[in-house]
Amino acid sequence: MQFQFSSFAEFLAMDGHGIYVWISYVVTFAALAALALYPRITRRRIQRELQRQQRIVQRRCKVNNERIAVVESA
């Protein structure tokens, strides 16, 4: 088997086209990473928002129950 390039530096340069090849690899892997991470980040954000809304509803229920108890005792 014969290798196309005689050294690792020549392999990275790819006859002057290396910059385009390696940039395309970086962009591709960055896009794949973003596609993998975006649902996780979105899920965490939605979970935090739902927890915040639940705390608000619980506080309102607690306040309303206290108001009802005060009115009933009066």
From TrEMBL:
It is found in: Cell inner membrane. It comes from the Bacteria. Keywords: Cell inner membrane, Cell membrane, Cytochrome c-type biogenesis, Membrane, Transmembrane, Transmembrane helix, Transport. Its main location: membrane. Pfam families: CcmD. Required for the export of heme to the periplasm for the biogenesis of c-type cytochromes. NCBIfam families: cytochro_ccmD. Belongs to the CcmD/CycX/HelD family. This is Heme exporter protein D. The gene is ccmD.
